[in-house]
Design goal:
The chain has 457 residues and is α+β, with helices and mostly antiparallel strands. 58% of the residues lie in helices and 17% in strands. The protein contains 11 helices and 12 strands. A 5-stranded mixed β-sheet has the order 2-1-5-4-3. A 5-stranded mixed β-sheet has the order 7-9-10-12-11. Helix 1 packs antiparallel against helix 2 and helix 1 crosses helix 3. The chain starts with a helix and ends with a helix.
Length: 457
Amino acid sequence: MLTIIFVMIAEVLIFVPSVARFRQDYLLARLEKSQIASLSVLASQNQNISSTLAQELLDNAGVYNVVLRRDAASQLVLSSPVPGPITTMVDLRDPSPWYLIAGALMQLFDPPEGVIRVIGSPTQAAGTLIEVAMPQAPLRSAMIDYGLRVLALSAFISIISAALLFLAVRRFMVKPIKRVVTSMEAYAKAPEDARRVIVPKSSITELRAAEDTLAELQTRLTGSLKQKEHLAQLGGAVAKISHDLRNILTTATLLADRMERSDDPAVQRSAPKLVNSLSRAVNLCEGTLAFGRVDEAPPKLAMTQVQEIVDDVLQSEQLSAPDGIRFECDVPPHMMVRCDSEQLHRILGNLVRNARQALETTGEAGVIKVSGTEDANGWHLTVSDTGPGLPPKARENLFTAFEGGVRKGGTGLGLAIASELARGHGGALTLVRSDEQGTEFQLFLPKENALFEDAAE
C-alpha cells in the first residue's frame, strides 16, 4: 500500500506537467490545421470559396475563425458564427512552463461552455501571427480523457511496482527475519544445545550483522549455561567435601586445644594461632555449605578494632612467605570499623594472600602493606604490594569466579569472594592501580549513618 501511495504521488507530480504538455500540443495542432486551411484559401486566385467549403475547413481545423497576419496586416481568412463571448485566452508564443501548467489546471476546472482565443506563431514563416477562436468543451473533454488514461496507467504501474517490491521485501527481508525469529524460539526451548545456535546466512549487510551478533550472544550464553551447570555440579561436590572436612577440622580443633596445655613455650605460642586457623577453616566450611544452599549468612556488624585483624592476617601469611617479603601494617591502633570481623578477615586474607603469591612468582624481595584511613563517609582499607602487577586478562575479569585468576592454576575465587563479602557490608572492593610498580586494592566500608541516609533517600 505504501508503494502504491508513493508511486501515485510521483505520478501526480508527473501528471500536471504532462496534462499541460497535452493541452499545448492540442492547441498547436489546431493552429497548424487552421494555418493549412487559411493557406488553402489564400492559394485560390480570387479568394472566393463557397460557404460550405469554408465551414468544412473550419470544422476540420476545429475552430470558429482564423486570423492570419502577413506583411504587417491582419486578415480574417475564415470565419463562422461564434456561439458566445471569449472566456479564455491562450498565448502560445514562447510560453513559460508555469504559464502552461496554470492554464491547464484552470482549463480542467473551468465550465465546459465557452470560447478560447488562441494566439500563436505560424510554422514555416507563413506569417507573423495566427489567431483562432475555438470551443472549449472538446479541449476539456480531451484533457479529462487523457488524464483518466494516465491515471489508469499510473494505477497499473503502482500495482505492479507494489507487487514486485512486496515479493522482493518478502524474499530478502521478511523471510530472513522470520528465520531469525524461528531460530530464537528454537534456541529458547533448549539454550544448552549448541546445535540450536543460529548460523548466519543472510546476504543483506544489516541482517547479516544482526545474525552474527545473535550467534555470538547465543554462543556465549550456551557457554555460560554449561559453565553454570558445571559450577552447580562442582558446588554439590564441594558441599559434600566441606561437610566431611568440617568434621575432620572439628577433631583437629579439639587436638589443638589440648596442645595449649603443653609446657613447651614454642607450642604455647603456636597453639592459639593454630586454633584460630582451624576455627576459621571450620567457619569457611560452614560458609561453603551455606553458599551451596544459596544462603550466605548476612554479616554480623559490630564495631571492631581493625589492627588486630590486620596483624593476625599478616602474621599468618608471614609463616608461608619466603625470606625477602616484608609485611607492613599502617592501620591506626585505635581505628574501629563497623564490620563482621570474620568476613573482614576473609577479605583481607584473600587480598594479602594474592599479593604474597604474586611476589613469590618474581622470586625477588618485596613489600606488602595494609593501611587504613577514615573519613565522614566510611573507612578505607588499602592492600598494596610491589609485585609485577596484574596481567590484562586478570584485570578484565577481576572479580569473576574462575575467570579472574592471576597465577597459573588459580581459580580467581579469592577476589570474587572478597568482592561479594564487601558488597554484603554495603561497601565495595576496587582496583586502584596495577602496573609494573605493583598493585593496590581498596576496600571501602560505609559508616552506619551513611547506610541509613542512603536507605532514606
